[in-house]
């Protein structure tokens, strides 16, 4: 995947990993870009079109893809956190239908595309005996900006005590002080992480790579929906007794248990809106998930879409992830707008969606972002009434350590 992404064959590309399957989507056959109030579409043999839209952004995406002049398609891309804002601004989504797809399963690569020349070039690249790149990383110092972050956590705890909301995720940005090689960072970071999903993308000059700990929404062709809220965090990776000790802390800490339980309850309530209520269920409640440098409490919440509902409805109901926004969501999203600068892709989603009605999306955390020669990391912590600024700051450091040691400078 890194070889394909770094080959220069396709300026725009997306790599998306699910358990047992890797996909590379290269080039642009069709494109849907969503800005606040405007949807831009580009399809084969049609003039590019920009048009205003009303209603919810998910509805604009659904209508844009419903009008695609293609008998079959798969699309890949990203959705910004502000997609869910009551007053959205900036770019909200960017998805492409690729010219070429490479799927790797069980050690075998399958290449498909609309242009035989693209397919041949990709096949030649896959067959070439090219040694793997082993560029050395330059770890990023994540222990910066602590005082400002602690002050924002204290402010959020005060808002919770005043009854403005129950929980809010407060995040902080860490700038990378050098140009980065995003593809090489993906290769280094993926070798050291155990994500639920991973991704590497370059669309319109915006690059990102990450190791998502959490499935935001997964919908299969039969309408079965699954989301995987993770909440409650402790460090992981110190080995033996240290990891066992932090695991026990995680499983017995009242603050962490409360944070997880209310997140699961919220996910259930969201699925009730779009699923047959009798089908909504929780499995694997509060099991520990090991994700790189941290471990979380995790559960799976599932259901079956109600008649007339689609994968876009499921995404709309679950977005943004409760574990990256807060409770209640509307109040938490509004609070985040006052506590932080625009998030963009952080706490948004990377999405793979198909004409069949299937959709898979990963919550964007543990990621590196790069645009206009500047790169940055970002991490947050869930703030509830029992939160302390020092502990929440340490949690952001633990999460940032899933990617900060693996950032590779641009040669």
Overview of this protein structure:
This protein has helices at 2-5, 57-66, 116-127, 146-161, 182-192, 240-252, 254-272, 311-318, 329-339, 389-400, and strands at residues 13-18, 21-26, 30-35, 38-42, 49-52, 74-79, 91-97, 100-105, 108-113, 167-176, 197-203, 206-212, 215-219, 224-227, 230-235, 281-291, 294-304, 326-327, 349-354, 359-363, 367-371, 374-383. 28% of the residues lie in helices and 34% in strands. The protein is globular. With 411 residues, it is an alpha+beta fold. The strands form two sheets. Strands 3, 4, 5, 6, 7, 13, 14, 15, 16, 17, 19 and 20 form a twelve-stranded antiparallel beta sheet that branches. The model has no long low-confidence stretch (mean pLDDT 93). It is built from ten helices and 22 strands. The protein starts with a helix and ends in an 11-residue tail after the last helix. InterPro entries: ADC_synthase (IPR005801), Anth_synth_I-like (IPR019999), Chorismate_C (IPR015890), Salicylate_synthase (IPR019996). Residues 147-399 form the Chorismate-utilising enzyme C-terminal domain.
